[in-house]
Structure formats: C-alpha cells, structure tokens
Amino acid sequence: MIRICVESDFDAIHAIINDAATAYRGVIPDDRWHDPYMTREHLAGEIADGVVFRGLERDGKLLGVMGIQDRGEVMLIRHAYVRTGERRNGIGSRLLAELLEQADRPVLVGTWAAAWWAVDFYRKHGFKEVSAVEKDRLLKKYWRIPDRQVETSVVLADGSWRLD
User: Buried-most residue among 10, 13, 58, 89 (CB within 10 A)?
Assistant: First the structure.
C-alpha cells in the first residue's frame, strides 16, 4: 500500500534513505559523500521545507519512500529511495506513478549525473534530461543545494515540461 508518510515514520524514512544511499559511495564526488548520507537534521529540514513523503508499505514496514515538493509552477521529486534488499521489485515505479498521477503541473527531478541507474530509471518513465544551461538555471531556482552539487547533477523533466 502506498500512503502519505506521517511524523511517526521519520525514523524509517531516515533509515531507508541512508541504507539506499550507500549506492552513491564511490560514485558521486568524494566531497559530496557524507556518512550518514543524510543526517536527521537535514531530513527534518527537508520536511520543514515542504517535502512530503509517500511510502510503500508492506506488512507494516516501509520499503521505499519518495518525496514531492511544491515549488509553485513546478513539482519536484525529492529523495526517492528503496531499501537495498527490496530493489528491482517495482517499488520506485509504483511510488513515482502515484506522485505523477497527483501532479497538476510539470514535474522535475534532480539527481547525481554519475548515478546512471537513477537517470535510467527516470528516462524509463518518460523523463528527459534538460540542457546543461537549463539544468543550472532550474537547480538554482527551485532547489536549495550547494554549487558543487549543481555542478555534478542533472535535471530531468516529465512530458509536460517544455524542453529547450
């Protein structure tokens, strides 16, 4: 079952993100890797900044989470993670479909350029990579991330976004 995550899911969301993010170790730039990948404070800040998580739950346990953030004229997919032992079971696809079904404006996702599996996942679901110039503009306008992360990321847009 997919449901909106609530405050009592915080620890599970945090655990899922940090478990799944181990895939980035040695892939993303060393200066962007942290252990843990996302601190509790950072996660709390993301939620306070409007990221609303949905989770796929089975037998009372969250197996994957994906956030969506309203940024006015666009919606952002944020922090999409599936427990390492549950990958390749369609959890991410189901979460993404749920969020896209509810989106009433263009949807953008930013991810690490070196995380080819994440880029491929979004492409498989109809997202297209924007140009490098547009990527920089979008990341600076809608995300609150360091310049170094802007340099090493890509942005993909759903079919309702006008590509340049």
Answer: 13
